[in-house]
Amino acid sequence: MAVTSEKLFNKYEIGKLLGCGAFAKVYHAREIATGESVAVKVIQKSRLNNDANLMANIEREISIMSRLRHPNIVRLYEVLATRTKIYIVLEFVKGGELFAKVAKARLGEGQSRKYFQQLISALSYCHARGIYHRDLKPENLLLDENEDLKVSDFGLSALNDQVQADGLLHTLCGTPAYVAPELLAKRGYDGAKIDVWSCGVILFVLTAGYLPFNDQNLMKLYKKIYRGEFRYPKWMSPGLRRFLSRLLDTNPETRITIDEIKRDPWFKKGYKEIKIQEDIGGIPNEEEKQLVDLNAFDIISFSSGLDLGGLFVDKYKTTEDVDRLTVEEPPENIIQKVEEAVKAEVGVVKLRKKKECGLEMEGQNGNYVVGLEVYRLTDRLVVVEVKRKAGEADVFSALWKDKIRPVIVRQPELVVAVN
User: What is the residue range of 37's domain?
Assistant: First the structure.
């Protein structure tokens, strides 16, 4: 992929390479219409075909980040795809990693407090929505141009629906120096409590300039973590030491909670709670409740070239049965356009509205039944999906392609349609 003068769907101009990960490259890009900077994570689909765990992580990251609207969390704008690549378009955070800042020198308690307060605000928001990060560390905390913190990288995050019958999570994940002792015990853990532990390690690193638990021998490192063996530097204030002792409590049952953190004397100095409006805070408003959620699996699999057939049984067997297109328009406008186009064909189509944002169309002679639904992809994009439920495929084809589809598609599609 070229790093200069490449245009992505005539919407983003790709710029310099910002970084390379194990499975993705991240580029700086500019939205052509607005001039706004964004970051574009580029993933080769061929990597996903051969790695089910990696695909699951990508799905989870997209699904989770699409729900999050908080000033201290990196924003996901949209997900695009070609036949060979997936493009995750993210907020561009120009200040770099918090790790780079603390690597130069330890921070004062005042500056550390500011970053920690922003981290807890973001984490409180996530936990209230059943989302647990599970890989918090300075490398995953970015700083913007105003020196405000942004939490990133939700690839190892978990949702409430992953909690097992015992009320705990069981997947082992995270970065060794930041993992909680109960996770090492392999007996299940509370996602909120391990995030709090990681926050404690981060706060220690910010104010001390080094890790509380560190050893080149991994087993010795884990033993220190499990026993809670660390020493405070002499320059730490008594209030911070006491606070850290509660964050780095090896017993998850007595470890400080998010609500208790917010009431702690050291923490709450200068702290102002951020109020998130429900319609932008991950909780659907009335209009959004009528929309069917589009999960990350669908986003990734919409474009040709990624064979996911072995993972599920699809009752729609052929490409003639399904058509999907991506449109940058409000869902209610799309439904209205389809209704008008169908009603113009008097005596040809019976139209029934569905409770969700969708329609069902039936030929007058019952020679076909077709469902149309609108799924929200991002704040700006929706996917229109048409599925043939009964009847001959070619009977509806002319009406769809000649009459209905043209009134929906007024611009180049941003995701390759399956048809």
Answer: 6-91
CATH of residue 77's domain is 3.30.200.20
CATH of the domain at 261: 1.10.510.10
Structure tokens at 384: 């229109």
Cβ(261)–Cβ(203) under 8 Å?
A: no
| Bind-site residues for ATP | 41
Residues 67, 127 share a domain: no
Q: What is the pLDDT of residues 6-25, one digit of tens each?
A: 788 889 999 999 888 767 88
Q: Report angle CA 203, 91, 64 to the nearest 5 degrees.
A: 75
Contacts made by residues 334-340, CB under 8 angstroms, sequence distance 24+? 334/374, 334/382, 334/384, 334/408, 335/359, 335/374, 337/407, 337/408, 338/372, 338/404, 338/407, 338/408, 340/407
Instruction: In whole angstroms, give the CA distance from residue 136 to residue 146.
Output: 21
| pTM: predicted TM-score of the whole model, two decimal places | 0.69
C-alpha to C-alpha distance for 279 and 283, rounded to whole angstroms? 6
Smallest CA-to-CA distance from 58 within 72, 40, 45, 77 is with 45
Q: Check if the beta carbon of residue 176 is closer than 8 Å to that of residue 169.
A: no
State the binding site. Answer: 41
Q: Which residues are catalytic?
A: 135
